Amino acid sequence: MAESGKDIDRAHDLLQRGKLVAIPTETVYGLAANALEVSTVAQIFEVKKRPAFDPLIVHLYDAKQLPEFCHSIPPVFQTLYKAFSPGPITYILPKKEVIPDLVTAGNPTVGIRFPRHPLTRQLLQKTGFPLAAPSANPFGYISPTSAKHVNEQLGNYIEYILDGGPASVGIESTIIDLSGEKPVILRLGGLAIEDIEKVTGIKRIEIKTSSSNPNAPGMLSSHYSPRKNLLFGDMERNYKVSKGKRVATITFCRKVNCIPENYQRILSPGGDLKEAAAKLFKTLRELDQSDADIILAERFPEEGLGKAINDRLLRASTR
Ligand code: TXA
Ligand code: MG
Questions:
Q1: Is the Cβ–Cβ distance between 145 and 282 less than 8 Å?
Q2: Which residues contact 72 (CB under 8 A, 6 or more apart)?
Q3: Residue 61 CB neighbours (<10 A)
Q4: For position 223, what pLDDT does the model report?
């Protein structure tokens, strides 16, 4: 087991000595390393068992550092940064040579994020170097939204987890590619597309999140998966095909008839998609560890964070 606590000096010291440290962000916990040290970054891939074609996001304290690592920063970046950073948005920008190819999986671009969690902001300010950090889970499994989740799976591989409490957003950052002529969304996430459209004035921003898209190598169709089977969509139909099995359900705000209450998870009785997103991964883990045989999840409203929730549930249900 790794130790966990709020000791920023210790986290800083470990990172400086080339070790990995798990860090809290408002989206999910990250497995962090000095992004400029190839040997440390290599450990991230080892510990996560992550394929080398899947690039990492680089975390910075603020935009003043950006020109050191990226070039050709378009004006729309400033608009988005002012409105949403620090926060759950990642910008894909052309990288400069200082960013190792291992970080970007050989891509000429790099994903940059300014996380909002105060502990990690303090840490970033202190280190001065950028932190490469994927979600702190074994590749393909559900992302961690608490220090305990990290410890359950990666506790034997790292010394220290900076414990910032439960993640408030609970779903990974929205990824927007700013390296082309027009902004393109590569991953639905903790910042709603509608908010991005409003601020930028773009009417229908292009969304390219399919697994076939080589620009988002990490967006494999099967991802965020519990070990148990998860059936997504029409609850009544999926219930019928689960005959004879012990069924657990995930719904937005309604109760399901004929399922015992302790096998039901209602993510937001009041119908708040942000609350539902914040609870999603914790709930998936909990049901994965329960004695249910199969998990049924309904489709959430296709608006706001509902889109990202549906995206994660769909991937969790694909084998
Ligand atoms: O909220 C988050 O973004 C969390 C926290 C820890 O910051 N991080 C996260 O990292 O979700 P990860 O490694 O689990 O997912 C990052 C994804 C990659 O799988 C890939 O699809 C995309 O970001 N990505 C990173 N760099 C890219 C690039 N240069 N071009 C296209 N996609 C990139
Ligand atoms: Mg991940």
A1: yes
A2: 93, 94, 179
A3: 20
A4: 72
Q: What Å distances lie between residue 72 and 67, 95, 178, 230, 288, CA to CA?
A: 9, 9, 9, 43, 44
The pLDDT tens digits for 13-53 are 999 999 999 999 999 999 999 999 999 999 999 999 999 99
CB under 8 Å to 93, separation ≥6 — which residues? 66, 70, 71, 72, 73, 77, 109, 110, 112, 178, 179
Cβ atoms of residues 10 and 17 within 8 Å: no
Pairing of strands 131-132, 57-59: antiparallel
What is the number of the ligand 1 atom nearest to the C-alpha of 90? Answer: 3
Q: Is 92 exposed, middle or buried (0-12, 13-18, 19+ CB in 10 A)?
A: buried
Maximum CA pair distance of the chain? 59
CB 61, CB 113: distance < 8 Å: no
d(CA 296, CA 303): 21
Top mutation candidate among 27, 58, 90 for ligand 1, by most atoms within 8 Å of CB: 90
Instruction: Calculate the CA dihedral of residues 44, 49, 55, 60 and round it to 10 degrees.
Output: -30
| 269 CB neighbour count, 10 Å cutoff | 13
27 touches ligand 1 (CB under 6 Å): yes
- The residue nearest atom 6 of ligand 1, judged by CA position, is 30
Q: What is the pTM of this model?
A: 0.96
Strand order in 174-177's β-sheet?
3-5, 160-162, 21-23, 30-34, 131-132, 57-59, 109-113, 89-94, 174-177, 184-187, 206-207
297 CB less than 6 Å from ligand 1? no
The 3-state DSSP class for residue 225 equals: strand
Backbone angles phi, psi at 202, to 5 degrees: -80, 130
Q: Write the pLDDT tens digit of every residue in 67-82.
A: 999 999 999 999 999 9
Q: Judging by beta carbons within 10 Å of its beta carbon (0-12, 13-18, 19+), is residue 188 exposed, middle or buried?
A: buried
